[in-house]
Amino acid sequence: MLALTLPRRTWAHDIQAGWKLGALAIASALLFPVDDLWVLSAALLAVVALHLVSGLDVLRYALWMMKPIVFFAAIIGVYHLATWDVAAGAAIVLRMLLLVALANFVTMTTALDSMIAVIEWLLRPLRRLGVNTHAIGLAIAMVIRFTPALVQKGAALIESWRARSAKRPGWRITIPVCLLALDDAEHVSEALRARGGLTTRNRT
Amino acid sequence: MDNRVTFENVSFLRNGTRVLGPLDLSLTERRIGIVGRNGSGKSTFVRLACGLLAPDRGEIRVNGEDIYSDRAAALDHIGIIFQNPDHQIIFPTVEEEIAFGLQQKGQNKTTAHLNARVFLRQNGRGHWAGRPTQALSQGERHYLCLMAVLAMGPRVLLLDEPYAGLDIPSSMQLHRALDALDQQVILVSHDLNVLEGYDRVLWIEGGEVVEDGPPKTVLRKYRTEMQRKGEHDAGLNASA
Amino acid sequence: MERNLTFIALFAALIAALGLLPKFTLMSGIPITAQTLGIMLCGTILGARRGALAVVLFLALVAVGLPLLAGGRGGLGVFTTPWAGFLFGFPAAAYVTGLVVEKWRNGNLTLIAGVASLIGGVGVLYAVAIPYYMVGADKGLLEATITMLPFVPGDLIKAVLAGVVTQAIWKARPEAVLSRG
Predict the structure, then answer these.
(1) A70-106 per-position pLDDT tens digit
(2) With contacts defined as CB-CB under 8 Å, which chain C residues touch A133?
(3) C-contacting residues of A 29-48, CB under 8 Å?
(4) Which residues lie closer than 8 Å to B186 by C-beta, 6 or more apart?
């Protein structure tokens, strides 16, 4: 399953994930209380420049990632137009676009493995509290492994439905998909136990 | 390498009814086959043998180890490969899948991944390391499951119908791979031709071992009985 | 132990899969995604704690950059919009849904799971999402509620469906319904 990272490396890829996430957190915190349209517009221009400097394809990718957000931005925009509160609406929309663009920039310039490594690092202090962080890594791998398989099998079920029905499947298709997930869970838990399970680590 | 899987007065119950046993077996031969109809108790037998299930009565040991209680020791002695690769492959890439077993045996992440790559190369599949497991063909997935367990170095290998659903070339390749193994191999299979070269075959029917001996004898009797059953009508009732 | 882990992981995958399957239409012809249904099912089938963990796992993977949200969305960006309250509310929704199913033992499972999904999957979810939206979009309660209103009918129907689906799964695989284990 492909992550949302850019298909090619940019300068930003070489910066450690931790730093990028930290910078994002700081930038978001700074931007959150800002209402001034001039400041927000300038910031937005800076973010666009950030993308352009990385490449035109980066800007295009960012716009693609932004598409679903535009719908929500429109809702806010329309509401504010209707109530003649354009300035406030513009501020909210600009801020939202800014935060989303920055966050997505980090997502698209960071490899999946690096992100997972950050999560594991963040969870390390929990080990002292007895949390099994190894199990978490395993769980992440399993979700990545099984999501495409479930989607594929679900699609096959839908096909099988449509081969025998004039109508598209409704909500009922969720039942066999759930059963597939449950069966997979049982089998994988057995396979996991067959290879030592969760408790045999750190033997030597 | 001498290995011994023992079943001492073993019984297994499900909802109060005995579905397997009583079994008294000492499996020491290098190549052992297991045949029987679906629902005969083979799957239960196999899961008992590798320590995934505990017997309700009696004791099961592999090379003297209590493989149900001591799971860590179990990994050194016995490994199992199930019928459907999709029910066993846990990770998105081949390297991770193999490294996992090594980590389970105590290696740290970096060492495990290194050794996984070495293992793949030794098996002529170094180029598989980064491949997504989803992208492998059926036969390749079966082979991955085999490698993932072999990498852990068990002395006894249990396989529950690994040939199911494979085309002829893949089947032959898997057979060759199993043939070459030093480990003791206990193979459950519907493919009787494969078992002809084995040292011992057990026929499990209705939770009991009804025949136990050289493949020539056991398979002949088994084939005859299966043929007889097949020639009769009356559905798929195991008691027919 | 292993069973808990795999169930949690597979349900996180299920939430993703339900969002990635082509949208299905309800009786009225409105296309909706089954993803929130998946959140409710985490609660009704796995119970409070495991259900919430499955949802948190799912969200973590979305945050990490996997396109698991309905429509193939994902990444950190979706967590910065005023609507992110829904995302942050998902685990609580699953938890409360699961709690109701675990505690309310006597009665028809369809009803119990349905009511649980209403309380958790709609009630608790919107109780988190609306205030979050109010802060993020700088709106009052009334305005925020009006903005959210179009989504409510779909979610109410999903709560009912969650009840039906839970019952169906209970019939087919009772041992897998961990909330009643």
Answers:
(1) 887 887 788 778 777 788 788 888 888 999 999 999 9
(2) none
(3) none
(4) B5, B27, B32, B33, B34, B46, B49, B156, B157, B158, B159
